[in-house]
Amino acid sequence: MTSSVKVALIQMTSSSEVDDNLAKAEKLIESAAAQGAQFIVLPESFALMEKYNGQKLEHVERDGQGKVQDWMSSLAKKLKLVLVGGTIAVESEIENKPYARCYVYQEDGSLLAHYDKIHLFDVSVKEGESYSESSNTLAGSEPVTFNWQGITFGCSVCYDLRFPELYRYYQTHNVDVILAPSAFTLATGKVHWKLLLQARAVENLAFVVAPNQTGTHDNQRKTFGHSMVIDPWGEVIDELQEDEGISIATLNINKIDMIKEKFPVHLHRKLMS
Ligand SMILES: O=C(O)CNC(=O)[C@H](CS)NC(=O)CCC(=O)C(=O)O
After folding, report:
1. Which of 40, 115, 147, 253 has the fewest C-beta atoms lying within 10 Å of its C-beta?
2. What is the CA radius of gyration of the chain?
3. Which residues line ligand 1 (CB under 6 A)?
4. Residue 42: which CATH number?
């Protein structure tokens, strides 16, 4: 059983050009691999930030085939690492309503897991800034965990962070590392991003790995950056600022048991549903 893993988070300002985004992400991933990262996580919508909000999506793939899936699989294989692909739009059973899907590829290029974003961002952030993700996306319904090298991971995406019951499910399924690739807005990120990430880590005694989009996108949307890794005690192990780049952190998985032994919050629950 592996007791530590070197993860890398990719922070980028994705545009509305898929090829440009993949080229940019590839450079960052190669640099992270050269620094010894074994497990790399891309942010939500890394391959495409749509120009238009609430309209038909411009690049949607079919499960199992498509440019972005091929790119993720071959890169994972070439660099012999795990690659978590934030989200991409993947056809669902309903026309023009793809899932926002996170694919996880492993070292031989095969698929290890996939997760469909459950909570969709239908909110008004402030005057002139509102989102209607459900108008062009179908919500997933299943929490997803997977095991890699004896470590258990739980999947989530962005707005999911506001729904603690998803993470409580992961706690009851012994998740060691919570993944939360995001495109958190600048306006909400300033107030809520770090707070939510730390809360999810502390209340569930798990690491939280959260790469975010950053900067101003083609569609004029602004995202917050500040990709970070939090340990199960709530401490920020590594944090980026607003520039594009990579964050590399070593997760010492033994730390979870060390904390649970002295501070067994997970055994003190009373109101089980
Ligand atoms: O639409 C895309 O291209 C990429 N997807 C997103 O940006 C998604 C849905 S609009 N954003 C969020 O979930 C932000 C959540 C958030 O910021 C909060 O909870 O405060």
Report:
1. 147
2. 17
3. 44-45, 49-50, 121, 131, 133, 158-159, 162, 183-185, 188, 192
4. 3.60.110.10
Catalytically annotated residue among 50, 117, 133, 244: 117
Q: Do 197 and 181 form a contact (C-beta atoms < 8 A)?
A: no
Domain encompassing residue 32: 4-267
Examine the residue annotation and report whether 158 is marked as an active-site residue of this protein: yes
Report if residue 272 sits inside a domain.
no
0.90 surpassed by pTM:
yes
Tell me how many domains the chain contains.
Answer: 1
Distance separating alpha carbons of residues 133 and 54, to the nearest angstrom: 6
Q: Using CA atoms, how far apart are residues 163 and 184, in angstroms rounded to an integer?
A: 15
Q: Is residue 273 part of a domain?
A: no
In a domain, 114, yes or no: yes
Q: Whose CA is nearest to atom 8 of ligand 1?
A: 183
- Report yes or no: 233 and 202 within 8 Å, Cβ to Cβ: yes
Tens of each residue's pLDDT in the chain, 273 residues: 569 999 999 999 999 999 999 999 999 999 999 999 999 999 999 999 987 665 667 899 999 999 999 999 999 999 999 999 999 999 999 999 999 999 999 999 999 999 999 999 999 999 999 999 999 999 999 999 999 999 999 999 999 999 999 999 999 999 999 999 999 999 999 999 999 999 999 999 999 999 999 999 998 999 999 999 999 999 999 999 999 999 999 999 999 999 999 999 999 999 986
CA 56 – CA 136 distance, rounded (Å): 6
Tell me, yes or no, whether 214 lies in a domain: yes
